[in-house]
Amino acid sequence: MPDLTDYAKNLLGRALCARAPALPSQVFLGLGTGGSDATGLVGEPAGNGYARQRVTFSGTGTQQNADAVRFTFTAAGGTLTHVGLFDAATGGNPLTWSALAQAAVVAGAGTVTINPASLVLSAG
């Protein structure tokens, strides 16, 4: 997940200048159809069982998701091509976004799984 949103860049800038921003205590992964630094993830599905999922990272430098992240759909959700991190399960602020290695086509009820260590976030 190499692309930080403008919100995250500003948050880190304030932290580096000892301005004590409120850092997220939890992060949530979402699926969507695109993204940009200004907006983060775009095109999140609405309904059909979709919900952002809490994700936990581990690592000492480069961060990787510790566990599988599963999105369950009760009906079609379309073709999802991107992921994004947020500081809330709904609404909230976008933190980072990235294209999926392979699009997830949700043509009916089912599950989209992001395997452990598939989400990689590094500062460099």
SSE series:
EHEEEEEEEEEEE
Model regions low in confidence, pLDDT < 50 over at least 5 residues? none
User: Biggest β-sheet, characterized?
Assistant: 5 strands, antiparallel
Indicate the mean pLDDT. Answer: 90
Query: How many individual β-strands?
Result: 12
Number of domains: 1
What percent of residues adopt helix (DSSP H or I)?
A: under 10%
Shape: globular
Please state roughly what percent of the residues sit in beta strands, choosing from under 5%, 5-15%, 15-25%, 25-35%, 35-45% or over 45%.
over 45%
**Radius of gyration, whole Å:** 14 Å
Number of helices: 1
Class by alpha and beta content: mainly beta
Task: Please list the strands of the largest sheet in the order they lie side by side.
Answer: 1-10-9-2-5
In whole angstroms, how far apart are the ends? 12 Å
Summarize it.
With 124 residues, this protein is mainly beta. The protein has one helix and twelve strands; from the N terminus they run βαβββββββββββ.
Main attributes?
three-stranded antiparallel beta sheet, 124 residues, mainly beta, 1 helix
Overall description:
The protein is mainly beta and 124 residues long. The chain has one domain (3-118). It contains one helix and twelve strands, in the order E-H-E-E-E-E-E-E-E-E-E-E-E. It has one helix spanning 6-16, and strands spanning 3-4, 27-32, 34-36, 40-42, 53-55, 57-58, 63-65, 69-73, 78-86, 94-106, 110-114, 120-121. The strands form four sheets. The protein has a five-stranded antiparallel β-sheet. Strand 6 (57-58) and strand 7 form a beta hairpin. It starts with a strand and ends with a strand. The model has no long low-confidence stretch (mean pLDDT 90).
